[in-house]
Amino acid sequence: MTVSPGSVPVTVVIAARNEAANIVACIDTVRWAQEILVVENDSTDGTADLALRAGAQVVPNPFVTIGGQRNAAIERATHDWILVIDADERSSKEMGEEIQRWIASPPHDACRIPRRNFFLGREVRYGGWESDKPVRLFRSSLRYDRSRVHEHVQVTGETGELRAHLLHAPYASMDQYFEKLDRYSRWWAEDRRDKGKRVGAGAVVLRPPFRFLTMYVIRGGFRDGAAGAVLACMAATSVMAKYARLWALGDDTARRNPPGSSRT
After folding, report:
1. What is the model's pLDDT at position 261?
2. Nearest alpha-carbon partner for 71 in 37, 25, 102
3. CA angle at 136 for the pair 114 and 166, rounded to the nearest 5°
4. Which of 56, 108, 200, 245 has the lowest tally of Cβ within 10 angstroms?
């Protein structure tokens, strides 16, 4: 089975903000889809115009969460099946062919898609990155949850899994990694705070080295050479930032509401 441009009855959803460097190349890899929606907010680098010129429909939407952005586009979808990809991911004709077969006789309402992940141009094969299989193909009746970080499609029942991979290059530079670390660790801590989670200083001390040990030794990150070592260290740093922020949020609440105080 081969696919031609616009032949697969699926709506592709791409959430993008200031992705001028990626958006056209991303759209080019899913031209086999009948509908491509780019949901964006306040881009200042021409992302929306580039997406329009590349043939996608642009859905402006005020940002609350990434899942919320995707949900806004899903509401506009005209097909029964949704494929979610990010601007820093690339699909393939083989994936289009497999999706066409899947939706012709779907065994489940949602499907995981494995990703091949790249870090500064190097493919990462160990450390846990090799088991990255998010739910990305699903019926248009499903929606993402409200989490700011690690958002996921709310699926009941079993999911399938495609054989075709997405290619994913999430970090073009170290600066981009640390910018995302700052933003994501803040969102993660706020999510947990809002759910009533609190931690002590012990979590800040113990969880980062445990993450390093798990990723670098137990899950074989050392096999990726220097890139594996750097990624394990950075993952530990990310864990430290998340739990330090969560501790600080709880400590700030305690300072504002000391024992014996009353709220009005």
Report:
1. 54
2. 37
3. 40
4. 200
Hey, what amino acid is at 206?
L
Task: Give this prediction's pTM.
Answer: 0.90
All CATH 3.90.550.10 domain ranges of the chain, comma separated, are: 8-171
Taking the C-alpha atoms of residue 71 and residue 102, their distance in angstroms, rounded to an integer, is: 22
Query: Tokens standing for 226?
Result: 């220097």
Q: In the CATH scheme, what is the homologous superfamily, with its name and number, of domain 8-171?
A: Spore Coat Polysaccharide Biosynthesis Protein SpsA; Chain A (3.90.550.10)
Burial label for 91, CB within 10 Å (0-12, 13-18, 19+), is buried
CB 72 within 8 A of CB 16: no
HSE, side-chain direction, 13 A CA sphere, residue 2:
2
Instruction: Phi first, then psi: give them for residue 14, nearest 5 degrees.
Output: -125, 115
Alpha-carbon distance 99 to 102, whole Å?
A: 5
Q: What is the pLDDT of residues 59-109, one digit of tens each?
A: 999 999 999 999 999 999 999 999 999 999 999 999 999 999 999 999 999
Cβ atoms of residues 198 and 252 within 8 Å: no
